[in-house]
Hints:
Largest sheet: 7 strands, mixed
Number of helices: 14
Oligomer: single chain
Distance between the termini: 38 Å
CATH class of the largest domain: Alpha Beta
Shape: globular
CATH superfamily of the largest domain: Alpha-D-Glucose-1,6-Bisphosphate, subunit A, domain 3
Mean pLDDT: 95
Strand content: 15-25%
Low-confidence stretches: none
Number of strands: 23
Structural class: alpha/beta
Amino acid sequence: MTDLTGLVKAYDVRGTVPDQLSPEVARALGEAYARVVVLPEGAHRVVVGRDMRDSGPGLVAAFADGVRGTGVDVVNVGLCSTDGLYFASGHLDAPGAMFTASHNPAVYNGIKLCRAGARPVGQDTGLADVRRLAEQILDGAPSAPADAPGAIEARDLLAEYAGFLRGLVDLTGVRPLKVVVDAGNGMAGLTAPAVLGTAAGLPALPLEIVPLYFELDGTFPNHEANPLEPANLLDLQAAVVAHEADLGLAFDGDADRCFVVDEKGAAVSPSAVTALVGLREITKEQAAGRTATVIHNLITSRAVPDLLGATDARLVRTRVGHSFIKAEMAAHDAVFGGEHSAHYYFRDFWFADTGMLAALHVLAALGEQQHPASALAEMYTPYVASGEINSTVADAAAVTDRVRDTYATAYPDAVIDTLDGLTVAHWDGQHPQWWFNLRASNTEPLLRLNVEAADADIMTKLRDDVLSLVRGEDA
Length: 475
């Protein structure tokens, strides 16, 4: 019996090629996706795109064959970023499939599936059913063929994607900026010249782009395309200082996440970006006479609810993970959502995440005033955070209970919740001000700790105290 549980994850498909994800498996997933998601919605076509990995073309062709065998047409948009695929899904009002493994090494590939309008397909919204049907197809289960196979069409939407994003944020009047962009040999090497430059035939912006690793290469010869790891920002940080640039931008492999570096080469917290962009979107809503709703996950800095809550906006706190954010975005008609991992979501982008649109907002905010990026970032970074710290434990639940009991006793006035792991907060109107979150990994024997406090001394003490409990000899 075929078992695809190691390949089909909670929110996407991802595995090694060809032992886990082969053309045969891709074909079965294409047929299953069409039967489970596409046809029941009454859709008649699927849009498919891919990143720069060498395995992409063969897997896309096989997946498209599976889809077409059900009578559904395929629009192949070729090379694109993940947010480029979301654009295609929204623009064409069609279900979509993006072949990417994001920042994973070259031997990996995967598929991010969505319904029409870029609505996500996850474990609880169809992906588990797709997996089960694909397993049956691979095991030889008969299926009724369509009267005629679907057609296939190649279409390039890069210029339309670039024009759409530019229409959401106007950079034509900003002061001239020099910007280093690190594409990490990923898809930003295609999208950044189109959106920020003139490669898609759009007028020039007052931006001087210094390209870093724009060559599309799925072997990632320069560094891993995962800017969340500090080591992968070193080249960008050095280049920003060397070129005396105003700003640095780094994208992950499929270019749906964006990270920011200031003119001194210092990384800007994604929480600061969330606060900055959130305030811009709130202001736009207020100008239209509407009350804005903004989504943030529970790991983002307290600066986000503090700063955005000072407006008339409604703040909604949610679990970590893009599926939860997207669900809350749609449920609340939220104008914007941000995560500590540098995923940024926009109502104007079908509630989906797009790193490039977040980058445009940051560039506009910087270019509309005269202060350097470091001063701008400081305004949105009033507190001190530890970053995520992982600890290997034998019994995550027992360790979490021990930490909870210790802090419930020591700080009876602290607020404790279990929305996602354990969060203990000693914050509102209290001194010292601090909070921490302890979450178990879904796939590894790890506990992930995030700490934030009003100053560095408090943060350091709290971090070390919690870690001593987590990593005790009986942990």
